[in-house]
Amino acid sequence: MEIYEVDAERPNPYRGKVESTYDDPPWMWEAALGPDNLLFQFGLFGASELAAGPGPGSVGPSEVRHFEQQLEIAGLRKARGSDVRRILDLGSGWGFLTGYLAEQFPGARRVDSVNVSRRQLEAAAARLAGSPAAERIRLYLCDGQDIGLLPEPETPYDLVVVRGVYTHFPDEVFEASAAAVAARMRPGGLLIISDTLYKTDISQYRSPVTDTVDRLACGHRKTPAYFLSVLERSGMMLEDMRVMPSNREVIHWFGKVRANIDARFPEGVRGPIGELREMCDSFSTTLAADQACVCSVITRRAPDPGRFERSKRMETER
Question: Which pTM value belongs to this model?
């Protein structure tokens, strides 16, 4: 499959850090996460599995359950799937979710997969090339703030999925991306997000790890209030926002990943997988202290963004 490159419209000094975060070959990520899908955005676990504690094994099935639950909350499992004609998978990783969306929404004439990591896009191209849905999929090497430069602006997106992506964006890039995404969506279109948010004062937060390493390009932390305010200013209306998976489930997910890494790399490992191994301990401590959480956020494009923003201002003034 061809990868189409979209020239950056504005600078993003942090982009290189994100690219290097995913520069390890896919087999190393499969060793850490399992070979099923490489979704890399946490999972839902049953009570019996949580009670048994984490052990080595793929986290893939739990991550599919997580996304399927988001689709259920959004009303897209059955009822409205036929209304989805164009989909954007922003920050599409190794391509599993892009293929999944193309299969789940056969009426979608186009599924656009966007990523800044060429290595991930090359893996996605290899994965998706033989798919029955391949002719409906387009792969773009494109910065998240440059969504407005994607082809066919006259055909808006009905569904946009952004999972585990905005955690990598500096605030100004996040704000530009949210505005660009909203501008390319049809009125009433759905935006499904999963991201890590911090429940404490960001200026006072201190990682359990005392060094200054920006592990896995997650150094630009955001609070729920700020995150939601950016989406609303962009013309999105909140439909549902909840902690999902629970902190206990995310800690369990990290425990399984830690067990996988320790089993496959008994002598230790450097680079992004090494950073992930360190985060298995450090971020689990943060979650156990209830200083952060993973949130599912589902918003809908306002029918009239200008009127929606005016209404929000009037509510604030009252």
Answer: 0.92
